[in-house]
Amino acid sequence: MKTILRLTLVLAVVLTAVGAQAGNGDFYLHVKKEDGKTIRFAVIEDKKTEISIVDQQDRILYSESSSNKNGINRTYNLNELLEGTYFLEVETASKIARYEITVSEKDAVLSNKPLTETYKPVLTSNKGLVTLVIPNTKNARVAIKIFDRFHNEVYSETLKDTDSVMKKFDISNFVGEEYTFVMDYGNKSFTENIVSR
Fold it and tell me: Are strands 60-66 and 49-54 parallel, antiparallel or unpaired?
């Protein structure tokens, strides 16, 4: 009876952790072992997921978009690829993660852990007050610029050595109504338009 109670408690903790992870917009990639030049993985995410395979020059060799409330399972045969290093990029609404694929003469291996994870910025606007949150920047340089609808720069700031960013902007006093926020960090650039009124 104690064993059943312990197992139930462990299962409840695991499900709570998975639910919390899914609730914060994160995703989980599970790598499965395959023979030959085949990679197989599952992405646990219930929203739209973009999957790409890119080479070392960031040229896209394959891409697809998928959405499934139960997650997705994919198997890719990489026989056509030359020996070398490639990357699997998985993008969701909350982040972009890059995993290494090593292709040799006889097999292909997909890394279990991401090489990089870049969390996307979150912008919210309420009556001209814009809140920008960038979680887990990993002390990267973060450049923030705001442009009006005529592409004039109305704000620019570069932040260094910060774990995360949370800034508020009052654009209700600005002259125009539409503004473009550009955030550069982690070798990525994110753009979002905000209407002030």
Answer: antiparallel
Measure the CA–CA gap between 49 and 27, rounded to whole angstroms: 10
Top-level CATH class of 27-117?
mainly beta
Contact 46, 69 (CB under 8 A): yes
DSSP run (H or E) holding 9: helix 2-23
CATH topology of domain 120-195: Immunoglobulin-like (2.60.40)
pTM over 0.85: no
> Between 66 and 84, where is the model more confident?
84
d(CA 75, CA 55): 18
CB 196 within 8 A of CB 179: yes
CA dihedral 180, 186, 187, 190 (to 10 degrees): -20
Residue 17: both structure tokens together: 């952790």
SS3 call for 51: strand
Give the pLDDT confidence of 171-183 residue by residue, as tens digits. Answer: 887 777 789 999 9
d(CA 66, CA 26): 16
pLDDT tens digit sequence for 120-151: 999 998 888 899 999 877 888 899 999 988 99
